[in-house]
Design goal:
Blueprint (H helix, E strand, L loop, with lengths): L7 E5 L4 H6 L12 E5 L4 H13 L4 E6 L1 H11 L9 E6 L5 H6 L5 H14 L5 E12 L7 E3 L1 E5 H15 L4 H17 L12 E6 L5 E11 L20 E7 L5 H10 L11 E6 L1 E5 L4 E3 L2 E3 L6 E14 L1
Parallel strand pairs: 1-2, 1-3, 3-4
Antiparallel strand pairs: 5-6, 5-15, 7-9, 7-13, 8-9, 8-12, 9-10, 10-11, 12-15, 13-14
Length: 324
């Protein structure tokens, strides 16, 4: 689809990892006549007010200069602005992993990326690369906090590995694909040695219900879910996807059985015949209910499930991404 987009606005996060490292400053490119607004919101309230201002001016595309966390904050805030306003998003990757940009496409880094978006709008080609993805919404029981929205959910060893990666992998200068590889490798090595993240006991106990299926109750090694189609490093960690659900998920019992022979089949999304009976499950669903005793992650950030431990994954809204 090709369409002339005349109303662009820019949200920039100067505190995101790559922007801090490069000192990226988009204000010069943002002075183009094709850009109606530029902002660096420093709080959720400021972000929501900025988005309301963009909506009042009829902005068609929001260029987001930041990482997965910045996108998560924007998507979460958009739901509280105007449900009828559905701007497309254009990513200027500036974060640690940029998992979302890897799937939907993006402009170049920094000021060059914004100039590419402006040029595509001027030439009427910004809509040529348009990708739609359902947005994963996490609702927490007992009205604990507002719903949060993003694209990649993790619980169990994945969330604990993410917590450790924020300290160790990033301290060693590992970002993007290297940080993801380090997190997965650490999960594997610790489990093989008999020292999985989070030790044992009630910490790994979960209840999972996909759509109206049978509740799966017990200790979990890892649960991951996403609405993205491509995962960084070309990981294929989801399978059994014949259903029409928007959420792809993988659910592995803990402690994981026969993890060494299962490790590569899980990463490739090509399970062996024995793996389902051993507690390796994957599929698609429109909604997932989880009962948790520990924190979960959404797009690299850790969150508390709330006092009840009950969370709900659904996809009430989709968003379009455009790239030059």
């Amino acid at each position: 689809m090709v369409g002339f987009v005349s109303k662009i606005a820019v949200l920039s996060n100067p505190r995101s990892t790559r922007n801090l490292q490069s000192g990226a400053d988009l204000r010069s490119a943002a002075s183009s006549t094709y850009v109606l607004g530029y902002a660096e919101p420093d709080s959720p309230d400021t972000l929501r007010e900025t988005l309301r201002d963009f909506a009042r001016h009829g902005v068609d595309v929001i260029a987001i200069n930041g990482g997965d966390g910045t996108l998560r904050e924007v998507l979460s805030a958009l739901a509280f602005v105007d449900p009828d306003w559905l701007p497309a998003l254009a990513i200027i990757p500036g974060g640690k992993t940029n998992l979302i940009a890897n799937d939907v496409g993006s402009a170049s880094v920094g000021e060059r990326g914004l100039w590419e978006i402006v040029a595509a709008a001027r030439e009427g080609t910004l809509g040529q690369h348009r990708v739609r993805r359902p947005v994963l919404e996490i609702g927490r029981g007992d009205e604990f906090g507002k719903p949060i929205r993003g694209f990649f959910f993790g619980a169990g060893a994945f969330s604990r590995g993410t917590e450790l990666a924020q300290v160790e992998a990033h301290a060693m200068g590992m970002y993007h694909g290297l940080a993801v590889a380090w997190t997965i490798g650490s999960m594997f090595v610790r489990s093989v040695r008999g020292h999985p993240f989070g030790a044992s006991g009630d910490d790994g106990m979960m209840t999972l219900v996909a759509d109206d299926g049978i509740p799966q109750v017990g200790q979990r090694f890892v649960v991951v879910a996403t609405t993205l189609e491509r995962i960084i490093l070309k990981l294929g960690i989801f399978w059994d996807g014949q259903g029409g659900g928007a959420i792809r998920y993988t659910d592995i019992d803990g402690p994981p059985r026969r993890l060494v022979p299962a490790f590569l089949p899980v990463l490739r999304g090509r399970p062996k015949p024995w793996m389902k009976a051993a507690g390796y499950r994957s599929g698609r669903a429109d909604r997932i209910s989880l009962g948790l005793n520990s924190r979960f992650t959404l797009d690299g950030e850790l969150f508390e499930p709330g006092p009840s431990g009950e969370i709900r994954l659904s996809t009430p809204r989709s968003v379009d991404f455009v790239a030059p």
